[in-house]
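Duplicate of #3305? Posting structure anyway:
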């Protein structure tokens, strides 16, 4: 190898010993760097990603629950609307029959009373259904407004905070990585300086081949 030619010279034993010590020291430093990276960078990154993913899953699950509640309210409102429209049609039909029956010449008062009673019942049912539909519509508007103006906004605010925190911690972890590498430089510099000093101290005149 390149260094084997130096072993014949006694004067080069000292710098070569420094070189071997340098390699041994750097091997130890590499082990320390690997351990430090695992402890201060790899594990924190894994923990950070897991916590962010879990927090996002919780937020989206909560949003899904709110969306299901909104959909349930919407379907309930549609059901009230269909019921009201049907009963309103029944009331109009019953009113029409009552008017037509009363206009028939010779119709008995009992039948007219029966038609009026049926009309009144149908009209009352339509009125109650209309009130229930109005209440359901108000509830739908309230739930929809809260969902879009509060819940969705809160979700995006939380996700933004999570993303901001994630980026900030990434920066801190990157700084830790730089600090780990920087801590090795003095060791390298010391070893290299020892090699250079030993090489400069070689005395060719005192050496024997």
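Output from current build:
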């Amino acid at each position: 190898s390149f260094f084997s030619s130096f072993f014949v010279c006694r004067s080069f034993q000292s710098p070569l010993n420094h070189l071997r010590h340098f390699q041994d020291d750097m091997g130890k430093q590499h082990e320390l760097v690997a351990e430090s990276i695992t402890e201060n960078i790899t594990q924190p990154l894994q923990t950070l990603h897991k916590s962010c993913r879990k927090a996002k899953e919780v937020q989206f699950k909560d949003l899904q629950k709110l969306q299901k509640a909104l959909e349930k309210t919407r379907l309930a409102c549609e059901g009230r609307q269909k019921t009201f429209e049907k009963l309103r049609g029944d009331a109009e039909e019953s009113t029409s029959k009552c008017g037509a029956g009363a206009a028939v010449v010779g119709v008995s008062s009992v039948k007219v009373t029966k038609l009026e009673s049926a009309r009144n019942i149908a009209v009352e049912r339509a009125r109650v259904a209309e009130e229930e539909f109005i209440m359901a519509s108000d509830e739908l508007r309230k739930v929809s407004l809260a969902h879009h103006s509060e819940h969705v906004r809160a979700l995006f605010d939380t996700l933004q905070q999570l993303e901001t925190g994630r980026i900030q911690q990434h920066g801190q972890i990157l700084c830790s990585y730089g600090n780990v590498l920087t801590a090795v430089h003095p060791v390298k510099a010391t070893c290299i300086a020892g090699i250079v000093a030993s090489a400069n101290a070689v005395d060719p005149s005192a050496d024997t081949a």
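Confirmed duplicate; merging threads. The longest helix spans residues 109-200. The CA atoms of residues 51 and 162 lie 10 Å apart.
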